[in-house]
From TrEMBL:
Residues 117-207 form the Fibronectin type-III domain. It comes from Sphingobacterium bambusae. This is Fibronectin type III domain-containing protein. The lineage of its organism: Bacteria, Pseudomonadati, Bacteroidota, Sphingobacteriia, Sphingobacteriales. It comes from the Bacteria. InterPro entries: FN3_dom (IPR003961), FN3_sf (IPR036116), Ig-like_fold (IPR013783).
Length: 207
């Protein structure tokens, strides 16, 4: 008898951004999904873990202190365990039915997926925000992308010292920035298959 398809439940090797994308994709796909009416654990409880992990991840990247990284790693483990339990529920409920498995947002052992690594983000535009020290970022959306990563720096600096994650291609506000300084900004798409290429760099003077 052929082996039944299953969703993959090991998240330990995923990079931080990949885990965030996977968790966000799964919650979105399973919300109001008629195939999975009683998720265990609940999607609400998993969302709490995702929000906590996202906050700790952003703090670790923003400040870079060892204590922030340790906190991020501490909250990552409960999130991985919750997603793993949710994957067991999906496998038990779907009983190897491939289209049902794929509708959960989990990756499948069959290797079949409608997604590929995102392409390079195009049409990146920056403009003044509504307040001083703000910049608005917009770009062309990609269906394959589940999340977007944006990095920015003062012009002529070598390191990309700041990072934000977003699920929207419009109305992204970057702040606080130094007034009168030129900033360089770039963005890329991310999904469970990996990270796309960075967009071309755009530059703006903050007002």
């Amino acid at each position: 008898m052929a082996n039944k398809s299953k969703v993959l439940v090991n998240f330990a090797r995923m990079k931080d951004d990949e885990l965030m994308v996977a968790a966000t994709t799964i919650i979105s796909a399973m919300t109001d999904n008629v195939h999975f009416e009683t998720p265990s654990p609940s999607l609400e409880s998993v969302q709490v873990l995702v929000d906590d992990y996202a906050a700790k991840l952003n703090a670790a990247r923003r400040r870079g202190a060892p204590s922030d990284t340790a906190l991020k790693n501490e909250v990552r483990q409960p999130l991985e365990e919750a997603l793993q339990k949710l994957g067991y529920y999906v496998n038990a409920t779907a009983q190897g039915h491939l289209s049902t498995l794929l509708s959960s947002g989990f990756r499948s052992s069959s290797g079949i997926s409608s997604l590929e690594v995102p392409l390079k983000i195009e049409a990146v535009k920056v403009r003044d925000g509504r307040q001083s020290g703000q910049v608005r970022l917009d770009f062309a959306p990609q269906r394959a992308a589940r999340m977007y990563e944006c990095v920015y720096r003062k012009q002529h600096e070598e390191a990309w010292s700041a990072h934000i994650s977003t699920t929207s291609s419009r109305l992204n506000i970057i702040a606080p920035l130094s007034v009168g300084q030129y900033y360089e900004i770039r963005v890329r798409g991310i999904n469970t298959h990996g990270q796309g290429d960075w967009s071309d760099i755009v530059t703006i003077m903050v007002r």
